[in-house]
Amino acid sequence: MQSIIDGEIKVKSAVSITRITEDGLDFEDGTHMQADIICYCTGFKKDTRDVIATIIGKQHNLEPIWGLDKEGEIRGTYRPTGVEGVWMQGGELQSMR
Known about the structure:
This protein is low in regular secondary structure. The chain has 2 domains: 2-34, no CATH class; 44-88, no CATH class. It has 2 helices and 3 strands. Strands 1-2-3 form a 3-stranded antiparallel β-sheet, with no helix packed on it. Strand 2 (24-27) and strand 3 (32-34) form a beta hairpin. The chain starts with a helix and ends in a 41-residue tail after the last helix. The model has no long low-confidence stretch (mean pLDDT 81).
């Protein structure tokens, strides 16, 4: 952690990689970062239903969580999940309705 704080290890987020080059990475925003080692992290397991199933049981049919539904709304959070009495909260507070 201290190496990140000291700037010895570089971290870049919120921009897509467009190309891995001979000496590093090119990004969608036009920047280039030199790198000896690349560690690509997604940060979390996207389908939370597996975690919830350990609590409520696998027999329940939870709606997909995260991503957008046909109306452009976030699926499965702050709305019915398909299982009576089970509600999900996730992400930042501005996602709430």
